[in-house]
Specification:
Elements lengths: L3 E5 L4 H12 L3 E6 L5 H6 L3 E4 L5 H11 L3 E4 L10 H28 L4 E7 L22 H18 L5 E7 L1 E3 L12 E3 H11 L6 E5 L9 H7 L10
Parallel strand pairs: 1-2, 1-4, 2-3, 4-5, 5-6, 6-9, 7-8
Helix pairs in contact: 1-6, 3-4, 4-5
Length: 242
């Protein structure tokens, strides 16, 4: 059965790989972008595009209400094109703001629209030091300082907003380092995940999985990956046909 889905961050590296999967599964997708120039690309993939800034709480609430989504998927980031390593440091505060303030605005808009399930992108390399591999129940590195502290703080805020968004069911996907189309990387160090497989996890989470966090990464020595495999039926080797 298809659902009405509001995809925040439709023009990002994961969003562009997720839209075709959602459409092929029979879902009706409204996908956001901050740039009007991106709307035709989203429409060509089968989504209904909407231009909105997540920091415009009123505009976001209006856009979500118009879409009437049963499911909201949060793939918003503010990262440099191709995830350019030389620019990642300066992007950290902007990205942390999206994870905190942006997520808070999206949660409020989703609740107001009667959304029943919220799926959000997080990252898998923010655990506190301790025995590896880290399971989802291990603590995050809340004592981190400097640039890492900014990033981890944003992640902690995002996950709190999502997992405390009752009565919605909150699902947090802790992705490994992305590689593949739109990421600027052909390979990545572990924990790693291909953009197609990352998007596939979000597709599966539309109908599967209980509330909580899931590590989404290829088998590695840093984080466990069994929960996503068991509860979602996720495959790390999933790739789009084209």
């Amino acid at each position: 059965m298809g659902y009405r889905i509001f995809l925040a961050g439709g023009s990002g590296a994961i969003g562009l790989r997720l839209i075709p999967q959602l459409v092929d599964a029979g879902h009706q997708v409204t996908a956001t972008t901050r740039r009007a120039a991106k709307t035709e690309e989203l429409r060509a993939l089968g989504a209904d595009p909407v231009v909105v800034d997540v920091f415009d709480a009123g505009g976001l609430r209006t856009a979500v209400a118009a879409a009437k989504p049963e499911i909201v998927i949060h793939q918003l980031t503010d990262l440099p094109p191709g995830l350019d390593p030389a620019k990642m440091g300066e992007a950290a505060p902007r990205n942390a703001r999206i994870r905190d303030e942006g997520t808070r605005n999206l949660v409020r808009a989703a609740k107001s629209a009667g959304t029943r399930r919220l799926i959000a992108q997080s990252i898998a390399w923010v655990y506190a030091a301790g025995p590896e591999p880290h399971a989802e129940t291990d603590p995050l590195d809340s004592g981190a300082e400097g640039g890492r502290g900014i990033s981890v703080g944003g992640v902690i805020a995002l996950e709190r907003h999502v997992l405390e968004a009752s009565p919605m069911t909150g699902i947090v996907l802790r992705y490994g380092h992305l590689y593949g189309p739109g990421t600027g990387a052909e390979i990545a160090a572990g924990p790693a995940v291909h953009a197609d497989a990352a998007a596939y996890a979000a597709l599966l989470a539309v109908e599967r999985g209980s509330q909580g966090a899931y590590n989404v990464a290829e088998p590695n020595s840093h984080v466990t990956t069994g929960r996503a495999v068991i509860e979602f039926g996720w495959r790390p080797d999933f790739r789009l046909a084209v």
